[in-house]
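# nightly structure sweep
# worker-07 picked up a monomer target from the shared queue
# config: single-sequence mode, recycle default, output format = structure tokens
# input follows
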Amino acid sequence: MPTPSAVPPRVLTVAGSDSGGGAGIQADLKTMLALGVHGMSVLTAVTAQNSLGVQGAWELPAEAVRAQYRSVVDDIGVSAVKTGMLSSALLVETVAALLAGTDAPAVVDPVGVSKHGDPLLAEEALDSVRTKLLPVATVATPNLDEVAQLTGITVTDEAGMRRAAAALLGYGPRWVVVKGGHLPGDPVDLLTNGTEDHWLRAPRHDNRHTHGTGCTLASAIACGLAIGQDVPTAVRAAKDYVTGAIAAGFPLGSGIGPVDHGWRLRDGR
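# output follows
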């Protein structure tokens, strides 16, 4: 009889489903498997989604989200939590309350729009993100569109990234990653807690198949925190993983394909 293995770190994703498999819950669980942790999920919404965009989205009731979360956390426990698509103020506030009562680091990806520009967060939920969700985040990971939604700051350069990060830290997260991949030139992200600044740079790969980058980065950060890394170490490792996944992104359907979550397995690493 085989000897039971030690229990790996456990990471819980609270997010929506992407039926095309490139982002959302599917991307999160693939990332967690690739990085050696046990992934678990709380589904917040179902989307009809493919390489061309989001054709439909259906939010789950708050009681269903709460029941899934309690079922996992109360029995299995968690080493870290990652949040993604929370489409309404009620869901944002429900999940924020659950995170506040959980003794584990939380990575909040304040998903506002899809890769294709489809809205995934109701306008009236923005205040709940600012006042309820961001204050319980260990790390928040907005892209520049989400920065503009939350702070009103339109970022066009690195100085703007620093101003945006300061505004976001004012809402209460311990750390913020302002993702600058939409700026021209090589992609740069700013990780800061208001005292330490870490500029994370990587080469830009000529590959349009980048669906799922935000979900993947946030999940990879959660994996690093779950195995005991500090925040700067976890974010740097996540950035390296996502950069490789972008380089290996592949065409799928007739639109934008996904990053390759299993690139290290295929790369022999």
